[in-house]
């Protein structure tokens, strides 16, 4: 097990480094940063000055290692736009996004797992159809549009909840619904298929023939096994949600990491963009690593590879 | 593959004296028997026809502004008229005409992005699955790295740098969405790598290129087509998101995401301005997903979920 964890950790670490190289290259190769920062009305001298000020005149490899050396010490340099270091901007915003992500994931799990279980128990009835319909519609709905619709209904017409900002817990309700609904369908479908598979297995038949009551069979025997892949999926979905928070946070003007990234992108604030991309990628890598370890702990067969 | 199955079925038919049902009739019956697939195909077909015939169908020029006819409500509204069935936008442009032209944008982007990503992903996946060993290790690593990069964020940052346009969005999404193609192509190729028809092609002295393109590819095509529908839907939603945030297709083009973005300021009092393009997006993505799910069921009727 330790060997397995060590090997996975090594892969996770090198993937993080590769992502940092790729994101650095993408941003530096897709245009001249100095010209983007200076803006369309600047003179050649101003562009040259910015190039020197921001260290963009040095060779790319040098720039990268300089940046990476800072990054491993959690120093991502200074923001071009905000009068602050990138790290303090991020540590100020990260809790908001993590709260949003955790709430959204919690909401998605609380809805998806029971719905998946019920759909599997009542396979091919109207409840099953309804659950599948909800999932199919959820997968087809653009998240930003769903977010706007929630604002129109619950913030403007019913006036139950605020439309934007992050002053109180009420401000997190609509964003969490918008973000969570996006992750829910996949988790529900996986719970349903997992349950269907498990319910038809031999050990469930044994449990039933022992005369155990149905709820013990379903909750103590079946669900426990069916839920293993859902846990792994939930970890991956949380990673996706952190990436998707850009859209939801900008719609609800929630001052989190996503909104910071969005502000930075529109203002050519590349140190911030690079840092946010790397941090979200590292979270995703950590989460998939954890999912791998959890899966391997629950299912020893997975440790071989 | 198909030769083998048809031989088997003729033999069993000859033995039991059942009437011979041609292969295509059975496929057609299964197609018609699958409600989701049938419904999805009809809706998708309808949208495709409307999009192709848009120049002859639209009642007005989708780009023609008319300041005296601004924000006319749709026909079901008490102040609506048949002159503008879905009303007009803030510049007095006919909403129905823009919606029909918007379908062209969504379909073009979805199809082209899925084709580009399909080409990249299939190439990588087939090579990894067929050669295994070190090639597989390198390509799997590339896939893992790609999965760790937050798609929405990277797409936003890149299009901010290179400037949003229809072609840029297609190329960007094509370069970002190949991961699922690669994963599926890799695993299906692994399953077929040691199949007898591959071995016999090798014995006959066929080149590796021939084996991969002419022997292997046709046999994994049905799985890839399912991925293609998923990625088309994914690309359409991402384009809408990018355009909604102002970094995708640029005005005055009638992208549905852009229409929602332009209507955002009016959504509190005139909710149809975001409802109409949003529902259009949802119906299109829903239809594509239904087709994809249906095709997957047709490929593996026993693995329905």
TrEMBL record, chain A:
Residues 94-291 form the ABC transmembrane type-1 domain. It is found in: Cell membrane. The keyword Glycoprotein does not apply. The chain crosses the membrane at residues 9-29, 96-118, 130-156, 168-184, 226-252, 272-298. The keyword Cell membrane applies. It is a multi-pass membrane protein. GO terms for molecular function: dipeptide transmembrane transporter activity. Keywords: Cell membrane, Membrane, Transmembrane, Transmembrane helix, Transport. One of its GO terms (cellular component) is plasma membrane. Belongs to the binding-protein-dependent transport system permease family. OppBC subfamily. This is ABC transporter permease. It comes from Marinomonas arctica. The lineage of its organism: Bacteria, Pseudomonadati, Pseudomonadota, Gammaproteobacteria, Oceanospirillales.
From TrEMBL, chain B:
It comes from the Bacteria. Its main location: membrane. It is found in: Cell membrane. It is a multi-pass membrane protein. CDD domains: TM_PBP2 (cd06261). GO terms for cellular component: plasma membrane. Keywords: Cell membrane, Membrane, Transmembrane, Transmembrane helix, Transport. The chain crosses the membrane at residues 36-58, 105-131, 151-177, 220-249, 269-291. The keyword NAD does not apply. PROSITE patterns: ABC_TM1. InterPro entries: BP-dependent_transpt_permease (IPR050366), MetI-like (IPR000515), MetI-like_sf (IPR035906), OppC_N (IPR025966). Residues 103-292 form the ABC transmembrane type-1 domain. GO terms for biological process: transmembrane transport. Belongs to the binding-protein-dependent transport system permease family. This is ABC transporter permease. It comes from Marinomonas arctica.
């Amino acid at each position: 097990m330790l060997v397995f964890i060590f090997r996975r950790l090594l892969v996770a670490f090198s993937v993080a480094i590769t992502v940092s190289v790729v994101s650095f290259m993408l941003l530096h190769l897709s245009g001249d940063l100095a010209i983007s920062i200076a803006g369309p009305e600047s003179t050649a001298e101003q562009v040259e000055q910015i190039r020197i000020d921001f260290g963009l005149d040095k060779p790319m490899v040098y720039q990268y290692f300089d940046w990476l050396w800072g990054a491993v010490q959690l120093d991502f340099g200074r923001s071009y736009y905000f009068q602050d270091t990138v790290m303090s901007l991020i540590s100020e915003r990260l809790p908001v996004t993590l709260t949003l992500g955790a709430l959204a994931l919690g909401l998605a799990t609380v809805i998806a797992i029971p719905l998946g279980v019920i759909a599997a128990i009542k396979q091919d009835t109207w409840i099953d159809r309804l659950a599948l319909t909800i999932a199919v519609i959820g997968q087809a709905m653009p998240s930003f549009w769903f977010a706007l619709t929630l604002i129109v209904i619950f913030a403007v017409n019913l006036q139950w909840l605020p439309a934007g900002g992050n002053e109180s817990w009420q401000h997190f309700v609509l964003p969490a619904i918008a973000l969570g609904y996006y992750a829910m369908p996949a988790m529900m479908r996986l719970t349903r298929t997992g349950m269907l598979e498990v319910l038809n297995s031999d050990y469930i038949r044994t449990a039933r023939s022992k005369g155990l009551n149905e709820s013990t069979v379903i909750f103590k025997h079946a669900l426990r096994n069916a839920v293993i892949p859902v846990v792994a999926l939930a970890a991956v979905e949380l990673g996706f949600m952190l990436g998707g928070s850009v859209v939801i946070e900008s719609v609800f003007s929630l001052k989190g990491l996503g909104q910071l990234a969005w502000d930075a992108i529109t203002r050519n604030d590349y140190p911030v963009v690079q840092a946010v991309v790397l941090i979200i990628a590292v979270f995703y890598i950590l989460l998939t690593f954890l999912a791998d370890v959890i899966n391997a702990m629950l299912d020893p067969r997975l440790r071989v590879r | 593959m198909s030769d083998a199955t048809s031989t088997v079925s003729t033999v069993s038919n000859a033995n039991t004296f059942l009437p011979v049902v041609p292969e295509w009739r059975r496929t057609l019956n299964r197609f018609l028997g699958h409600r989701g697939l049938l419904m999805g195909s009809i809706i998708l077909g309808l949208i495709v026809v409307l999009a192709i015939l848009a120049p002859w169908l639209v009642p007005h020029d989708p780009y023609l502004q008319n300041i005296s006819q601004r924000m006319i409500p749709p026909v079901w509204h008490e102040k609506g008229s048949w002159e503008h069935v879905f009303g007009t936008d803030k510049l007095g442009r006919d909403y129905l005409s823009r919606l029909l032209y918007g379908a062209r944008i969504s379909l073009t982007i979805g199809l082209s992005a899925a084709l580009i990503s399909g080409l990249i992903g299939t190439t990588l996946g087939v090579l990894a699955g067929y050669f295994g060993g070190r090639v597989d290790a390198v390509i799997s690593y590339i896939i893992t790295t790609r999965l760790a990069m937050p798609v929405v964020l990277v797409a936003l940052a890149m299009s901010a740098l290179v400037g949003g346009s229809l072609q840029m969005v297609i190329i960007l999404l094509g370069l970002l969405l190949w991961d699922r193609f690669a994963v599926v192509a890799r695993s299906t190729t692994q399953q077929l790598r040691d199949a007898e028809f591959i071995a016999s092609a090798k014995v006959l002295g066929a080149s590796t290129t021939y084996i991969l393109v002419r022997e292997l590819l046709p046999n994994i095509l049905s799985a890839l087509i399912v991925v293609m529908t998923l990625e088309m839907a994914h690309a359409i939603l991402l384009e809408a998101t990018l355009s909604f945030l102002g970094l995708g297709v640029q005005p005055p083009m009638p992208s549905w995401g852009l229409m929602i973005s332009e209507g955002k300021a009016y959504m509190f009092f005139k909710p149809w301005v975001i409802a109409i393009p949003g529902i259009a997006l949802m119906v299109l993505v829903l239809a594509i997903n239904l087709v994809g799910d249906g095709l997957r069921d047709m490929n593996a009727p026993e693995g329905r979920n």
